[in-house]
Amino acid sequence: MKKLLLILAFVQSGLVAAQSQQEDIAFGLSATALPVFDDYRLGAEASLRYYITNELSVGAKFQYTFNTYNHGFIYQTPKTIVHYSNISVPIQFDVVNKERFQLGLGFAPGIASATLRDRTQLKEEEYYDEETGVTTVVRTPVRLDRDSYFTLTPNVDVAVKLFNIDKESNTGLYLTGNAGYQLVLGNGDFTKTTDFRNYVLSLGFTIKGTSR
Q1: CA angle, 117 then 120 then 124, to 5°
Q2: How far is CA 183 from the centre of its chain?
Q3: What is the maximum alpha-carbon separation in the chain?
Q4: What angle do CA 89, 109, 32 make, to 5 degrees?
Q5: Bigger pLDDT: 209 or 91?
Q6: Is the predicted pLDDT of residue 18 greater than 60, yes or no?
Q7: Rounded CA separation 186/174 (Å)
Q8: How far, in Å, CA of 77 to CA of 121, rounded?
């Protein structure tokens, strides 16, 4: 019993030490190449990760792109626009964690959505500002359909530190690149899984520092 208690105490102290060594937060903005309809579309990406230990982090990522088309897919309209977005939870383990260089392996489960809108039909929405008394009219294409899929993206992440922003909090700016392969599951009305299944690439900047 004493040996068991000693082992449990040792494991617990190790976990507490690992968690207390680093409570970093990493915020990133990137340009990304997203697979949409057997082609790559340039998009934007924003991510936020919290480091549970020195190497293990979990967070949230948002990716977005759009494109216009001169056909209606399954609908009778000559002009459409598709908005594509993906909200995922990246889980990453840094196999190399140096001061100037990090190499991480991870995966990101998420939900991808493709929203189809008709550019020949516009819907008007009015927004009234009580403080200024100004009414703003916004015209948006009418939504025709939306397909959603479950995605899983194994990936490799590389970060190179450019310079320190704040030495006391060990906050720095990193040049970051990420490459993964997006797997897609589900069924759609005007799209199919192979329309979004391919490599995903991103390049951008990340600010990383302690939250304490």
Answers
A1: 75
A2: 15
A3: 77
A4: 75
A5: 91
A6: no
A7: 36
A8: 9
Q: How many CB atoms lie within 10 A of CB 169?
A: 13
Q: Residue 2: pLDDT above 80?
A: no
Query: How many CA atoms are closer than 13 Å to the CA of 126, on its beta-carbon side?
Result: 5
Distance CA(92)–CA(74), nearest Å, equals 39
Mean residue pLDDT across the chain: 89
> Quick one: CA dihedral 103, 38, 150, 89, positive or negative?
positive
Sign of CA dihedral 56, 176, 83, 139: positive
C-beta separation of 209 from 50 below 8 A = no
Amino acid 97 reads: N
What 3-state class would DSSP assign to 165?
strand
Task: Please report the pLDDT score of residue 6 as a whole number.
Answer: 41
DSSP per residue, 138-162: EEEEEEEEEEEEEEEEEEEEEEEEE
Of 179 and 13, more confident: 179
